[in-house]
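Run log // design_07
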């Protein structure tokens, strides 16, 4: 929108009026279904809404930049040019070799705001983080939530501080040399405040989470543009360095050029213009390397994707859990197999799905940095009945053994906030919908979901209870506790090792060796060896490289010449 100019796409409406305060202004339709109005004196900070046909209910702008009164209230004009950026020297960061830290603004601090988060950015710098990946900040109904029920995709959630506060957060990260990735959700809209379908044919079908977008049907060109323009705005107007695309397997697009490929091409063009790297990281359940294969080679050209198979293999090896989708990863050698090729299900049978799943990657063509590796994420913690972290199940030493595998692998490591000190807080599912009927449905649905797996009603936290949010908030004071501090220092040391020894961050999968011997996992990283004993018994390994003092050890490790003795839940990096 330019100053004093308003426009909105409503191709099948007979009349659209612009409401500015008590005044109504008629709008004029063009041949593409866009309605326009020019209203003098309506600059930055003006509240407005749209009236469709004879409906007296004013609706917020589908492309709203600011929703200070919530997702049901009027939109407010916001001029991106007004913010004075301080990151003119920022040239971005490559993903290869980097470490990502996933955080949720609402529970990262007790205040749950961008301004409060600034106080802990130096902690992330000290840890050695290269990127923060921020869970969705788009506007959703209520005050507290994960952010995946957003409905105003271009407006920053007001309780977090609104659009200008988010810019200050990005600016502050860049000032410290930390890039910002933003989680965005294009596969569905939330259940409250999703007014898009009143303006036009935005929806076609449903996902398991809500209405899906019309990406390939009649009038879909403008819907696709809606997604792409939103993505480009985050990258251009908010200076974020990349986007994490939620559940792209739920984007139904039968067109010749998939939305993801089109989006990647547009982002690459913007990256060239801005002269800094921009990243697109998919969450995908497809196990299809096409997503991260270059467009020149017939792929979609995304930068990277989350790799849940790596998580599942690590989780089973560390915890012994084998329920549900973990069952296949209990097979002998599953962890080593998955570490070698990223996907465990690669054109192979998946018992959880009851069918063959996935396609293999080519280690000589696909770089490991294109696959994110993690022990914990918001999903893998928050979608457990109690939202319990790994540290609630396994010992700190065993957690650190898992971290050694992640940080010394050829993949892009990611950790979830608080993991670096084995935070005692759970991260549970929570929401704060204002509609009592919807709130009740969410509460009952959550309990019914876990009742089917044997959980009692009292064992599943109430997602609408504010105490659930409080429990899920990071307890920063634990960093002063010696036990938690020891975990933090080891995480910090592992990240420092990746920086000091390039072979530990080498993403070439065809140069990466994985072996198992007497329950000991051995990672070959150039001239370095990483030994991790996840078994129940002490083991001894004979190194195949000249003996050197270990770079880092945790647990009971003893070296004699080329022989290394490791107690259970111990690791050594040579």
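design_07 sequence
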């Amino acid at each position: 929108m330019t100053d004093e100019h308003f426009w909105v796409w409503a191709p099948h409406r007979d009349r659209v009026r612009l409401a500015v305060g008590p005044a109504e202004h008629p709008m004029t339709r063009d041949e593409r279904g866009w309605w326009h109005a020019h209203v003098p004196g309506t600059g930055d900070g003006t509240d407005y809404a749209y009236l469709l046909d004879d409906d007296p209910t004013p609706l917020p702008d589908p492309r709203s930049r600011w929703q200070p009164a919530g997702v049901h209230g009027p939109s407010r004009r916001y001029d991106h040019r007004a913010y004075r950026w301080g990151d003119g020297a920022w040239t971005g960061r490559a993903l290869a070799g980097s470490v990502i830290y996933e955080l949720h603004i609402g529970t990262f601090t007790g205040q749950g705001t961008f301004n409060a988060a600034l106080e802990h950015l130096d902690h992330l710098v000290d840890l050695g983080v290269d990127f923060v990946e921020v869970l969705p900040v788009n506007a959703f109904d209520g005050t507290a939530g994960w952010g995946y029920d957003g409905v105003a995709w271009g407006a920053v959630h007001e309780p977090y501080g609104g659009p200008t506060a988010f810019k200050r957060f990005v600016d502050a990260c860049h000032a410290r040399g930390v890039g910002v990735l933003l989680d965005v959700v294009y596969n569905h809209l939330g259940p409250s405040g999703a007014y898009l379908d009143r303006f036009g044919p935005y929806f076609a079908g449903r996902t398991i989470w809500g209405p899906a977008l019309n990406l390939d049907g009649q009038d879909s060109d403008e819907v696709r543009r809606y997604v792409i323009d939103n993505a480009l705005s985050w990258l251009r107007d908010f200076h974020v360095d990349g986007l994490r695309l939620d559940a792209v397997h739920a984007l139904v697009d039968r067109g010749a050029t998939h939305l993801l490929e089109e989006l990647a091409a547009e982002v690459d063009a913007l990256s060239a213009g801005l002269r800094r790297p921009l990243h697109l990281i998919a969450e995908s359940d497809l196990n299809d390397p096409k997503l991260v294969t270059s467009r020149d080679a017939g792929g979609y050209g995304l930068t990277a994707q989350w790799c849940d198979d790596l998580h599942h293999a690590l989780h089973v090896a560390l915890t012994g859990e084998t329920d549900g989708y973990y069952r296949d990863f209990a097979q002998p050698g599953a962890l080593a197999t998955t570490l070698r090729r990223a996907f465990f299900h690669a054109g192979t049978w998946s018992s959880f799905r009851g069918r063959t799943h996935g396609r293999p990657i080519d280690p000589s063509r696909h770089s490991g940095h294109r696959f994110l590796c993690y022990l914990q994420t918001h999903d893998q913690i928050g979608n457990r009945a109690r939202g319990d972290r790994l540290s609630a199940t396994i010992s700190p030493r065993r957690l650190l053994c898992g971290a050694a595998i992640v940080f010394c692998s050829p993949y892009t490591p990611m950790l979830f906030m608080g993991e670096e000190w084995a935070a005692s807080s759970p991260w549970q599912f929570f929401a704060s919908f204002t509609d009592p009927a919807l709130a009740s449905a969410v509460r009952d649905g959550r309990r019914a979901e876990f009742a089917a797996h044997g959980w009692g009603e009292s064992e599943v936290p109430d997602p609408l209870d504010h105490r659930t949010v409080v429990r899920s908030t990071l307890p920063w004071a634990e960093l002063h506790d010696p036990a938690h501090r020891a975990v933090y220092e080891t995480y910090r040391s592992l990240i420092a090792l990746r920086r000091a020894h390039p072979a530990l961050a080498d993403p070439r999968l065809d140069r990466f060796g994985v072996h198992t011997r007497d329950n000991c996992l051995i990672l070959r990283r150039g001239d370095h060896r990483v030994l991790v004993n996840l078994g129940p018994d002490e083991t001894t390994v004979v190194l195949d490289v000249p003996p050197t003092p270990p770079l880092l050890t945790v647990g009971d490790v003893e070296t004699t010449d080329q022989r290394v003795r490791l107690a259970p839940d111990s690791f050594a990096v040579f």
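The longest helix spans residues 482-500.
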